[in-house]
Amino acid sequence: MNNLRKRTALFFEGNGEYRKTGHYIDIFLISLIMINVIAIVLESVVSLAQQYKYEFLILELVSVSIFAIEYLLRLWSCVERAEYKSLDCGNFQRRLKYLLSPLALIDLMAILPTLLMMFITFDLRFLRVLRLLRVFKLTRYSRAMQLLLQSFRDESSSLLAAFFIMAVVLILASCGIYLIEHDIQPDKFGSIPAAMWWAMATLTTVGYGDVVPVTPLGRFFGGVITLLSMGMVAIPTGLLASSFSEQLRKRRIMFSDAVHECLHDGELDGKLDDAQLEHLENLRCKLGLSKQEANKAIKSQLSARTKNLYCRHCGERQD
């Protein structure tokens, strides 16, 4: 049973001898997710929904069955994954920890709307939107989305601070425009909550133009808020861009360090054996690096290793 569970974990992770099989599974699931998203979008067209009602229903039932089987198999085999196997607790606690992980919650959202529909009556439009959340399952297979999620986690405190400052500025802008414009435009700036719509559109530099100040002082105040918002919006964007770049750099360094360790453990001729290459390939897939990036790191470490084997003065091999 443990062997079967371990093989199942390797299938989904695409590691070791099951890398190719795992790759095919990923391609199949990605294709199924994209077909579902397209079908859900087309189903919103009334004429198509009526004409192909049974086809849409069959696709939904088949897809939910496959996603449910995937979810249960991942839950069952997660205890064999390295990050959960190393935990000093029982299998129940490991599975509970996996259940609360972001990717597991996304997998649950992919099947939950249809399962709930069997017991609770839903507005079809609301259900359709919930089913569209399946597109987030692509996060599991997208390197960019994984990096973005990690960036959100790493910069969560900084982002919260930035949004707190923006919330304070939003309240100040709403109060200011309310005091200036509420007597002239009571229908648009009659209260601070009503003024928040203008403040939000201005601070985010969207500027719908449906609500605008008309007094000279109000226009001046609006101009100041617009200039201020240009810097405010750039703060979270800059934090995420910087963190995204840092995540890429960390993963490349991690892979380079692994190559260096493999070379250090090997012979002095600086060659990698099959087991080391297999280990590096598994690590490359786990980190989401491209083959070009991995080859570049290996060549760089091999070049540095070769240079260190010989004396730069006499050219003789160093023992």
UniProtKB/TrEMBL annotation:
SUPFAM superfamilies: Voltage-gated potassium channels. The keyword 4Fe-4S does not apply. It is a multi-pass membrane protein. The chain crosses the membrane at residues 21-42, 54-77, 98-122, 159-180, 192-208, 220-244. InterPro entries: Ion_trans_dom, VG_K_chnl, Volt_channel_dom_sf. Pfam families: Ion_trans (PF00520). Keywords: Ion channel, Ion transport, Membrane, Potassium, Potassium channel, Potassium transport, Transmembrane, Transmembrane helix, Transport, Voltage-gated channel. Its main location: membrane. Residues 24-250 form the Ion transport domain. It is found in: Membrane. This is Ion transporter. It comes from Pseudoalteromonas neustonica.
